[in-house]
Every structure is written in C-alpha cells, then in structure tokens.
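Section 5.1 Outputs to date
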Amino acid sequence: MSAPGPQEGAALPVFRYHPDPMATGAVAAEPVVCRVCRRERSHRYTLPVYSEHDVDSVCPWCIADGSLAARFDAFLNDIAGHLPQGFEDDPDWADWSTPPYLRVPEAVRDEVCRRTPGFSSWQEVDWLVCCNDAMQYLGLADSCAIEHEPGLRRALEEVGVPGEFIAELRADTNASILCHWFRCLHCTTSRGFVDSD
C-alpha cells in the first residue's frame, strides 16, 4: 500500500526547475488514477515518461517525491545533451574539457531528469545550465516576450537565430518555430533555444 499523499485540493508540488508546469501544459487539472500511487488525483502529467515500462497517468506529486523515478526507473528530461552553438565564445564555458552539464552536481542532474516535469518540443532537447546549476524552464517565449527580455533576444542572436525567426515566434505549442525560455536561478541570465518542426 502506498503512503498517504496530498489531500484533494492541496497545492501542487513545487518544482525548482519548472516553477509553473500548469502554465506550460506539462501538468493539467484533469482527474486521473495515478499509476504510481494508485490514488485518484485532481491533476495529471501530460507529457511522455521515458521508461522501459508502460507508464501513463502519473500525478505531479509522484514526480516531485521521486516515486515515479524509483518505481519505474523513469526519466522525464535530458540534461546531458548537445551544446548550443555559440557557447565556445562564452567566458562561462571557457574550459571545453568538461561539458557544462557535467559541471552541474549529480543531485541536480537527477532532480531535472527524474523529478522535474518536462516540456513539449518538436525536437529532442536538453535542459540548459548556467552558473553550475540547471536553469529554470519558464515556458515558450513569443516575439513580444523576447522584445521585453533583451537578454533572451541577445542570447538567441548570439547563437545565430535570424531576426526574422524571432519576429515569427509565438507561444503556441503547435507553431512551427518555438523558443524555449530558461532563466538562471543565480545570475538571472535568460537563455533560450529555437525548436522547429
């Protein structure tokens, strides 16, 4: 029998690296019987769970407390992927003998990969890092948000995203071109990457 979980109507768990999974669509207010805790829940995780087991119908509480990861050896994200173009010129990443994600403590990598809701994308994506920590995922940025966030625009331009792409960006998961927006928890730098179908 699983341990008692939150009462109905209880606040959603807090995710350090994905602060508003309801706004990003990773969590929905839809009833579900969670496959992990086997309880009726008011919210469900809407995105894929990567596991050798067939895992669907998961509640956010079982993601946050690690039950999903422990029971099904499940992953939700990747932090250990490819480096965005342009990082070789960034003084924060001057030492290329160690990729940035390996400078992030293993506990942080584990939290992002196994206990943080993912986000919807067209292509395989990797969680961005800064200041030896994972960055917070804020959601999709449209061209208006980018205009009001000069650091994000600069970061996109520095990695070669053409201005006409930036002008076309919409905060709509069905758009052909998306910009995933991240912010550093320490220096508050914004970074993003463009994802397209």
